[in-house]
């Protein structure tokens, strides 16, 4: 079970529901490097819907790089993230860390980390 | 102290660094003060007494907050200094370990908490959902519960809690920049204190110790593995989930890539191995005295060669003061030579 989806996402009628996700989480106390790349069109419907919901709940498309980009290396042991999303006419590409990411973004990050580990467990 | 002030204003940082490398103490202090001032200006609002280091030294108090699995710090204060034990194991672990760390720094190293002015120890537990990490953010420590499979609660381990608190000590001393070699030194000093404090608390000698970092937080999927080995860098883990431990144990395997802030958790294996060798020779308690003295003399952009020079110099001064055995400078030099330093 992933984190709670903040509301069921409903795609606008007539718009193809696909989103490309490119996620990387690195560093931390354990120096992990987790990567998850997916196109929601290729995911099970339930997971696709969950990810759309988490993306909407995170407000990630409203964030500006300058809002979240770390100003210096560190602080020590935080995770560092790169996240690119493309959905219809919307695109975003951000770099941030655990401290600079707003709280509402973290449920999405947690689920993407979980999916990256699931892929690794399955040998992908 | 006119020179000190003039240094901050007129002498270019690069020149100050070179002066520090040649042993000019005032240059080192000037770099350190400028770095700390910049860091504080860029961080949260700091009261003037702290900023000017005129605040009276007080006893550090512990405050443990339960984040209640949200992504926010300081959600609910659940145990303050002197309060009875909680029913939550993670809260008590964080509280008890922080007490051991505070006592260790006070009794063994004569340091009054993180900032040497009795700074309170703020610990956040149950941060986020399945968050597999712990970090120091410049003001406080934060611990996740892990996913329960690969990692369990990060506050369960004394060496993890000590590692994070030591990042705070580094911030208030050398303030090593968290990238490349200065960042690897930052990680190294945290591993040194993490391991040394664990040995002190468990009444172990360098011979008895396992020299592993993070072994207590490995979950059932990776039970028996660890995250780093100071004794044998590069051997802490090797599995399909985490891959293989990438730490080198010698400069000839130095990682020069961009990942991990240019290898801060990777290249720390090289000085870690040197510290292990020194501890095996003169004892962990004596080796820590040397390293702690050096940490107070290093500066933000110090590299591995700088660290070797300052650590050897510290060993010499402590030998002269009768605090470490005769021959310690030679032991330190030999330990670094064995890992390919200085280059």
What is the CATH superfamily of chain A?
Mago nashi
Using only C-alpha atoms, the radius of gyration of chain A works out to 14 Å
Strand content bin of chain B: 5-15%
- Oligomeric state of the chains in view: heterodimer
Share of helical residues of chain A: 25-40%
In total, the number of strands of chain B is: 9
Descriptive notes:
- The complex is a heterodimer of chains A (124) and B (343).
- Chain A has 124 residues and is an alpha+beta fold.
- Chain A has helices spanning 45-58, 65-68, 106-121, and strands at residues 20-27, 32-39, 79-87, 90-97.
- In chain A, strand 3 and strand 4 form a beta hairpin.
- In chain A, helix 1 (45-58) packs antiparallel against helix 3 (106-121).
- Chain B folds into three domains: 2-51, no CATH class; 62-156, Elastase, domain 1; 180-338, Neutral Protease Domain 2 (Neutral Protease, domain 2, Orthogonal Bundle), CATH 1.10.390.10.
- Chain B is built from twelve helices and nine strands.
- Chain A binds chain B through residues 3, 26-33, 71-80, 98-99, 103, 106-107, 110, 113-114, 117, 120-121, 123, and chain B through 42, 70-72, 128-138, 147, 150-151, 154, 160, 163-164, 167, 177-179, 183, 186-187, 190, 214, 227, 240-242, 246, 259-261, 265-266.
Give the key terms.
heterodimer; A: 124 residues; alpha+beta; Mago nashi protein; four-stranded antiparallel sheet; 3 helices; globular; disordered N terminus; B: 343 residues; alpha/beta; Elastase, domain 1; Neutral Protease, domain 2; 3 domains; two-stranded antiparallel ribbon
Short description:
The complex is a heterodimer of chains A (124) and B (343). Chain A is of the alpha+beta class and 124 residues long.
What's the arrangement of secondary structure elements?
The complex is a heterodimer of chains A (124) and B (343).
Chain A: E1 20-27, E2 32-39, H1 45-58, H2 65-68, E3 79-87, E4 90-97, H3 106-121
Helix pairs in contact in A: 1-3
Chain B: H1 2-10, H2 13-21, H3 25-42, H4 48-51, E1 62-66, E2 76-80, H5 89-107, E3 121-125, E4 134-136, E5 141-143, H6 158-171, H7 180-201, E6 212-213, E7 228-229, E8 238-239, E9 243-244, H8 259-263, H9 269-282, H10 284-295, H11 304-320, H12 328-338
Parallel strand pairs in B: 1-3, 3-5
Antiparallel strand pairs in B: 1-2, 4-5, 6-7, 8-9
Helix pairs in contact in B: 1-3, 2-3, 5-6, 6-7, 7-9, 7-10, 9-10, 9-12, 10-11, 11-12
